[in-house]
Each structure stands twice: as C-alpha cells, then as structure tokens.
Protein: Catalase family protein
Amino acid sequence: MKDSHDSPPKTAGAAPTWYEIHHGGSPEAEEAHFRDLADVIVNIQRTNKQKSGSQVSRRTFHAKIVVGVDNAELAFRDDLPADLHAGKFTAGARLPAIVRLSNASGAVRTDTSPDLRGAALKITLPGGSEHDLLMTSYPVSHARNAAQFVEIAKIGAGPKALVLPRMLAEFGPSETARILGNLKKASRPSASLAQESYWSRGAVLWGDTGPVRFRLSPLGAPTAPTLRPDSTDGLQADFSARLSTSPVRFALHIQKYVSERLTPIEDGAVEWKEAVSPWVSVATLAIPPQSILDAQGRATRDRIDTLAFNPWHAPAEFRPLGNLNRARRTVYAASAREWQAR
Structure:
C-alpha cells in the first residue's frame, strides 16, 4: 500500500509546520498493517524461545536487564525556558523514575558481546499517572519504518547463511549496505552503561514546542570501567561498583524539529544533525548510591523486569510521532502480552 499525506499540516505555537503520513492513507488502514506486523514479532519471540531452549518467552528485543532501580529522580532545570514547558515537565519539577538498562538482543548473552544498549524510564507524574521514555545507544534506527524494521528482524531470526541473500532480494544492494553498515556501527561492546548515551531516535510531541527527539548523556568525567574481558555480567558489576560510592547521573536533552527535509518525522533512519538543531539541556536524571546486587537490589531488578515500557505510556501532549513510533503502540503491546504470560 502506498503511504499518503492524510494528516493535515499542523503548527504548534511558533513551531515550524509538521505533519504525519499514515501507511495506507488512513489511521485505520495503518493500524491493520501494524496488527500484521505484531503477529510477525510475536512469532519471532516464539522462535527465539525455541532456539534458546528457555521455558519462558522473553522480550523480542532488550531481553537481558542489566540494571533495574526504582528510586531515580528526573529533575528539570530551575531555569527551564517557558517555551520548553510541557505538561508536568516544568521548571524545577522533581519526578520519581524507574530505570531499566538493558542489552538490546532478544537472546540473553554475555555482556561483552557486541550489542546495542537500551535505557527505559518510567516516570511517575503528580496524580499517579506514568510517562515512559525509551532510548537506545545509537542516534538513528537501522530501519526507515516499521515494515522495514520487522522484515529485517524476520530475516535476522532465520538461518544466518541466508541473511545477506534475503536482504539483497528484499531491499536491493544500496539499502542493504546502508542497513548492515548501520547495524555494524551500532552493535559494539560497551565498557560501561553509565558512560553510554541513549537516543530516542524517533520523534515525540513536546507540548507547544512541537516535535522533538531526546537523548540521555552521561554527566561527570569518564572513569575506568571494571568489565572483565570474559565477564558474563560485567556491565552490571561495573554499574554496581559506581553506585556503591556515588550517584550515576545523566543529562536529558531535547532537539527541536526544524523541517521535514532536515529533521524528518517519518524516516527513523535519518539523524537530526546537531548543526541543524542543537541539543538543549532540560533535566538531570540521578540514580542515588545503593546496592543493586544484594537481595533487595536483585528483587527490585526482577520486579522491574516484569514491567512493560511503551512510548505510548505518556500524556497526550507527549504523543509519539512517526511510523516507527506509531507502530510501537500495537507491536509492543502484543509482544508484552506474550512475554508477560510467563
């Protein structure tokens, strides 16, 4: 089905005009398409379960939790400019947050394996509602849209010897080279999850500010990691060592939409360049000193690993934007039903 500009142009205050494009020409057609994609993702989950010999289903991606804490705080700048206020994200706001840091693979592997890393926040808003922020340790997605993402995942779940010929048959030489090059650069060993940056990759609405992308970046001078070359859970040990003496802190930045050409909403594979749209600091995420490896810390981690994170767990003024993000509402919910059934 051909995509069409079915959403009228939108403006938010003084923000540039922007719009969304629904697959198939309407939200209803797109939603039916996303349900088909969700079925594919659930089948991949079941394939991963069978390959691993596990008795339970896991998340299709980000299966291995490395860090799970429930006492973090997201503190917004006291001097946050008025035009960046949105919902409960206002100057001086202090909001409790759950943090889940993970390896991105759908299989539980050693921490030294090359991989993407993920950061998921579940923020508690005044009144008790929740707001999830999801990020990954590379600025852009390897996939331009949800259909491409799911097709790549389906090919990757099959025989390794057939990955390249199937990619070439599906996407052609140029696009296959782009996809594989992105995956190669993004999937790498990590020295410390406390020293990674994590990007939203897709855009979300930020109240009257309009569309933005967001990023977590480490605060403080880099310090030597404790990860051993043969370590199965070295990233967890490294994070634990850091938290034993001091907080781990990240800066939350946002990047404003400029134009569809320079900062596209629908194409998740295009980076919003800092030279075009500078990052603006809005808040600090602080994880206080604590033990994450004692009995209480492990119990907290295990409880957090039962939680479903979804960018659609958010107030309306922070609605996720773009094809990839719109798909996540349906696909993540279907995937969560599968792994939570354990």
Observations:
- The helical segments are 27-52, 146-156, 163-186, 234-243, 295-304, 323-340.
- The longest helix spans residues 27-52.
